[in-house]
Write a structure and sequence with these properties.
By secondary structure, this protein is mainly alpha-helical. The chain is built from six helices and three strands, in the order E-E-H-H-H-H-E-H-H.
Length: 195
Amino acid sequence: MAGHFEALPGGGAAVALDEVELSILRSLAVQLLELIGPGDEPVEGEDPLAALFAEGPSEPPSDPALKRLFPDAYGDEDEELRAAAADFRRYTEKDLRARKREDALAVIRSLDALSSSSGEGGAILKLTADESRSWLGALNDLRLTIGTRLEVTDEDESGELYRLPDTDPRKPMVMAYLWLGALQESLVETLLPGA
């Protein structure tokens, strides 16, 4: 179980994590929350129904990582597609941001609950089926963000990232990227039917 998720009866998953892994996962989830930004807090006296239907942004984010997390729904080849993408973003991005925030918060909450009950050396994280899906979303978002920061492309499949010297300043992020990928893959396997 060390280093990868295993299926639990009832659709959940479990993974053994040491103290360093717990700390890294929590830190990355907090950084993801900071990147996504705060949610819209209800304003006192504001109609909750009006807040529910408030429009979101119509322009894509300028940060490349956020652009990857919140991509345009359509290409930008022509004016009509750009207008459709802006409309789609206006009505969906707020909900997508909220879901991504909830996924990251689910990771933080489960790690906080685990760390308060774990002993020295780490612990076994046990997730329900719903928590597993939230973790899967957060792990995916973390990999997309780190991959964007590292400028990972399809051409990088040649293994260049695997051969970075230890002195390369990108090495720790590459190691996190690869580790998160292995965690994500093992969690996906637990969620497949018949796992």
